[in-house]
Amino acid sequence: MKLSRTSASIGGLAAVALLGLTACGGSTDAAEAGTDTPAETITVETNNGPVEVPADAERVVALDNTSFATLKALGVEPVAAPKQLLPNNGFEDWRDDEAIADVGTHREPNLEALNEAAPDLIVGGYRFSEYTDDLAKIAPVLDVTPDAETPGAWLDGLRTQTETLGTVFGAEEQAAEIVADFDAAQTAAEEATDGETVFLANASGGKIDNGAGRIGRLLEGVNLEDVFASEDLDGESVHNDSGLAPETVAEADPDWMIVMDRDAAVSTAEDEFTPAQSLVAALENVWGETTFFAGDQIIYLNTDFYKTEGIQAYTEAYEQISEAFSAN
Amino acid sequence: MRNLPTRYFPAAVVLAAVGLTAASLLVGGYSITFEKLLHDPAAQHMFFVSRIPRTLALIFAAAAMSVCGVIMQLITQNKFVEPTTAGTAQWAGLGMLAILIVDPGAAPMAKMAVAIAFAFAGTWVFIAFLNRVRVKNSLVVPLVGIMLGAVVGSFSTFLAGTFDLLQTMSAWRSGGFSGIVEGFYEPLWLAAVVCVAAYFVADRFTVAGLGRDVATNVGLHYGRVVFLGVTMVALATGVTTVVVGFIPFLGLIVPNLVSMILGDDLRRNLPWVAALGVVFLLACDLIGRTIIAPMELPASVILGVVGAVAFISLVLRQRKHVNA
């Protein structure tokens, strides 16, 4: 998912320049919001090395969508968040809350609104990782997003992320529960699967394409094999998400198919809009004879998966996998 | 020397078109060989639901975009105008985006109708704009079109960004035939019908291409012909844009090559324009299909590279005749 970020960076620069100006002016919102006595801090390990964060952070900005659900579970209510990146379901309260400032998206972040929210901690990283330096001038930035680049690092990263957030917000027990749920789901999925081949699909723009670049991490925790993995298209290949003709999938004849429904994740439709299902159904003529289609061995990830991708999303995905495989 | 390409051109184009069509039918992700085609029912089935639809889609889209190019070039009396340089395709894209925002679950037919309506309106905006521009030298006209297209395109991008549809837009904008199977390409028959219809009214466009004054003097209802041309272009471009996305430059390179070799008689040229367009697009799609197999690069990406080079060399060639 490479995006043009020029305009966004310019916006970021402008906001930082503004910050500089307000700092020169003397009075800042942050000073008014903070207490006179210096707060206690703890040092945590992040993707950018050790960072000192306040031990009782109260004004939190949530930017990293992989951690929204965890923050919510730990009882954290942010003062600012990218409202467009909030999952469609389960975050209506945050989205509708006027008190939570909207910081735009990673493509066009509204760093002024973020600054006005006077945070004392920013949970950043992932889509916002390039702004870490700018954001650090506003408040300490906690980037504990799982490593998406290194193969095999995502799942451990999810655990570490959850544990670190638990420590920072003094909710170690809840965090441990979340990790335990995840471990249980992952183990069950690993045991339910037995080396079957799978096609990882992404439904986007009315087309079904290879989605291994995005959801290939799922396979780290289960005993499945990407049907196109042997095609010399490893995780770093730029062609990992390139077009794939339906007949090519039919030729590969995978045992299973796992679909990320990107169209549904960004859909604003209120009705029962299921783009991926209808796309797959329309391909019956081509896929009718394949193992995954004939045996109905297709798993549609939660429609919010594209916007969540956090430990809860993976827990659910593994539950779906073990349930589907046990039923067959 | 000038006669040599003129004499052999038709035969060469037909030969290339037939050869590439055969290649398009035989190359792909599913293993289909002559042998299997005769005996293996699975391969036969795949041939009919995947290969033939895709090849037909390529042929129809290529013919439609090339023919649209000629029609627009005659209407505007400019060699550099075609649906993607006049903004028509960008307007169709905006229409597609509009329906995605308003009613994402809409039927394909509804999407197409909206895209066609937008393409139609957009082409008129371009023509109305041209009527108000005094300097009509050969570079100003396409620049106006490209500029309008860029404005519409940026607006689409802004809208897509606002409604979180950027990836959806780019997935569909990149003009690929990889997803085309039975059930996805059928609307393109409408584009094919437009091509055939264009053949029957070709003479009128040829006369219109001489300019409003001359055309009116020889008894042509100029306004009606322009309206007919815009309608045909909007229909073909709208359908093609919705089904396969933008196909850049085809309408630019192909008609110019053909008129360089065969002259400017549209009725005689039209079949060759369509055929050469098919050759170009089939070749680009086959390249995209094979270089990173089993994945695919969209034909429009390859076409963009070829087209950009062709566009620049055409401009440089024209500079000798035009004092811009």
UniProtKB/TrEMBL annotation, chain A:
<protein>
    <submittedName>
        <fullName>Iron complex transport system substrate-binding protein</fullName>
    </submittedName>
</protein>
<feature type="signal peptide">
    <location>
        <begin position="1"/>
        <end position="30"/>
    </location>
</feature>
<dbReference type="GO" id="GO:1901678">
    <property type="term" value="P:iron coordination entity transport"/>
</dbReference>
<dbReference type="GO" id="GO:0030288">
    <property type="term" value="C:outer membrane-bounded periplasmic space"/>
</dbReference>
<dbReference type="InterPro" id="IPR051313">
    <property type="entry name" value="Bact_iron-sidero_bind"/>
</dbReference>
<dbReference type="InterPro" id="IPR002491">
    <property type="entry name" value="ABC_transptr_periplasmic_BD"/>
</dbReference>
<feature type="domain" description="Fe/B12 periplasmic-binding">
    <location>
        <begin position="59"/>
        <end position="328"/>
    </location>
</feature>
<dbReference type="Pfam" id="PF01497">
    <property type="entry name" value="Peripla_BP_2"/>
</dbReference>
<keyword id="KW-0732">Signal</keyword>
<comment type="similarity">
    <text>Belongs to the bacterial solute-binding protein 8 family.</text>
</comment>
<keyword id="KW-0813">Transport</keyword>
TrEMBL record, chain B:
<protein>
    <submittedName>
        <fullName>Iron complex transport system permease protein</fullName>
    </submittedName>
</protein>
<dbReference type="InterPro" id="IPR037294">
    <property type="entry name" value="ABC_BtuC-like"/>
</dbReference>
<comment type="similarity">
    <text>Belongs to the binding-protein-dependent transport system permease family. FecCD subfamily.</text>
</comment>
<keyword id="KW-0472">Membrane</keyword>
<keyword id="KW-1133">Transmembrane helix</keyword>
<feature type="transmembrane region" description="Helical">
    <location>
        <begin position="88"/>
        <end position="106"/>
    </location>
</feature>
<feature type="transmembrane region" description="Helical">
    <location>
        <begin position="12"/>
        <end position="34"/>
    </location>
</feature>
<keyword id="KW-0812">Transmembrane</keyword>
<feature type="transmembrane region" description="Helical">
    <location>
        <begin position="270"/>
        <end position="291"/>
    </location>
</feature>
<feature type="transmembrane region" description="Helical">
    <location>
        <begin position="139"/>
        <end position="163"/>
    </location>
</feature>
<feature type="transmembrane region" description="Helical">
    <location>
        <begin position="297"/>
        <end position="316"/>
    </location>
</feature>
<dbReference type="InterPro" id="IPR000522">
    <property type="entry name" value="ABC_transptr_permease_BtuC"/>
</dbReference>
<dbReference type="Pfam" id="PF01032">
    <property type="entry name" value="FecCD"/>
</dbReference>
<keyword id="KW-1003">Cell membrane</keyword>
<feature type="transmembrane region" description="Helical">
    <location>
        <begin position="55"/>
        <end position="76"/>
    </location>
</feature>
<dbReference type="GO" id="GO:0022857">
    <property type="term" value="F:transmembrane transporter activity"/>
</dbReference>
<dbReference type="GO" id="GO:0033214">
    <property type="term" value="P:siderophore-iron import into cell"/>
</dbReference>
<feature type="transmembrane region" description="Helical">
    <location>
        <begin position="184"/>
        <end position="202"/>
    </location>
</feature>
<keyword id="KW-0813">Transport</keyword>
<feature type="transmembrane region" description="Helical">
    <location>
        <begin position="225"/>
        <end position="258"/>
    </location>
</feature>
<dbReference type="GO" id="GO:0005886">
    <property type="term" value="C:plasma membrane"/>
</dbReference>
<feature type="transmembrane region" description="Helical">
    <location>
        <begin position="113"/>
        <end position="133"/>
    </location>
</feature>
